């Protein structure tokens, strides 16, 4: 029986490739129009909080212990560009590149969860063409980097099944938790995920140790939340009034 023509295999193999390329092309078109419309947006929050704090890091490698330490992850990225005397255009370009990588990972994540190229294509296309999401790439704010970092963390959980690689991803989780004040939620979510994943497989002695570790982690998390809230100016005023 003769072999099937070569072009049938080629068409079949290229179909998933087309489904991956279309969201990327849509993303690129939207990025062009958003940059033409927005340029580089330096908000009041960036001018009075992020940029001065990042300059302190860039010049003296000094992390002040005021409320701005809650944004140390993002301001560290900003400090790298300031240290290199790079215009803020390069920062927003970096944020856009991160969002592109996150888009590719979203398609892979949905494909893994649903086992469907079509579902993954639709999800990626919705993200790629959503102006409310993509516009933050052009603001000097935490939203773009934090969103991309959350996707990277989620990709580690879904796409990476090697425990060693999951442990090596801990710096990514810690960095994400420092991008903005509510970033600690990522660490709490990761702890819950690994707890429910490995707990049923553990012997009784190891389960007891796991409960001790979970209790200690909960106490540390409460201390972290208390510290972050304690740095809030509004809470400080309330305490002073008392």
Taking all Cα atoms into account, the compactness measure Rg is 22 Å
Q: List SSEs in N-to-C order.
A: HHHHHHHHHHHH
Shape: flat
Q: Helical amount among residues, as a percent range?
A: over 70%
Overall structural class, as computed from helix and strand content, comes to mainly alpha
Mean pLDDT score: 81
Main sheet attributes: strand count, strand direction, barrel closure: none
Alpha plus pi helix count: 12
Quick gist of this model?
The protein has 242 residues and is mainly α. It is built from twelve helices and no strands. It starts with 5 loop residues before the first helix and ends with a helix.
Care to describe what's here?
The chain crosses the membrane at residues 21-40, 88-106, 140-160, 172-198, 210-229. This is Glycosyltransferase RgtA/B/C/D-like domain-containing protein. It comes from Rufibacter sediminis. Keywords: Membrane, Transmembrane, Transmembrane helix. The protein has 242 residues and is mainly α. The chain has a domain at 16-181. The chain is 77% helix and 0% strand. The protein has 12 helices and no strands. It has helices at 6-38, 44-60, 72-83, 88-114, 117-128, 131-134, 143-159, 163-168, 170-177, 184-198, 204-230, 233-241. Helix 1 packs parallel to helix 5 (117-128), helix 2 (44-60) crosses helix 3 (72-83) and helix 4 packs parallel to helix 7 (143-159). The longest helix has 33 residues, at 6-38. It is flat. The model is unreliable at 1-14 and 232-239 (pLDDT under 50).
């Amino acid at each position: 029986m003769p072999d099937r023509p070569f072009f049938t295999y080629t068409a079949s193999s290229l179909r998933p490739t087309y489904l991956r390329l279309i969201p990327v092309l849509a993303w690129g078109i939207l990025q062009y129009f958003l940059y033409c419309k927005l340029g580089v947006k330096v908000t009041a929050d960036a001018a009075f909080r992020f940029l001065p704090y990042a300059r302190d890091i860039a010049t003296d490698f000094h992390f002040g212990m005021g409320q701005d330490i809650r944004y140390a992850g993002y301001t560290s990225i900003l400090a790298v560009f300031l240290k290199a005397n790079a215009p803020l255009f390069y920062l927003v370009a970096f944020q856009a590149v991160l969002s592109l990588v996150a888009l590719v990972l979203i398609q892979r994540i949905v494909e893994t969860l649903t086992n469907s190229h079509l579902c993954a294509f639709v999800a990626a296309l919705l993200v790629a063409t959503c102006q409310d999401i993509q516009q933050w790439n052009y603001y000097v704010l935490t939203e773009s980097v934090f969103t991309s970092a959350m996707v990277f963390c989620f990709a580690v959980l879904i796409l990476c099944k090697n425990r060693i690689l999951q442990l090596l991803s801990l710096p990514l989780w810690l960095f994400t938790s420092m991008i903005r004040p509510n970033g600690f939620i990522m660490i709490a979510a990761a702890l819950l995920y690994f707890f429910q994943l490995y707990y049923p497989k553990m012997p009784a002695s190891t389960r007891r140790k796991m409960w001790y570790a979970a209790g200690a982690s909960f106490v540390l998390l409460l201390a972290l939340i208390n510290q972050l809230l304690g740095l809030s100016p509004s809470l400080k005023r309330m305490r002073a009034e008392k």
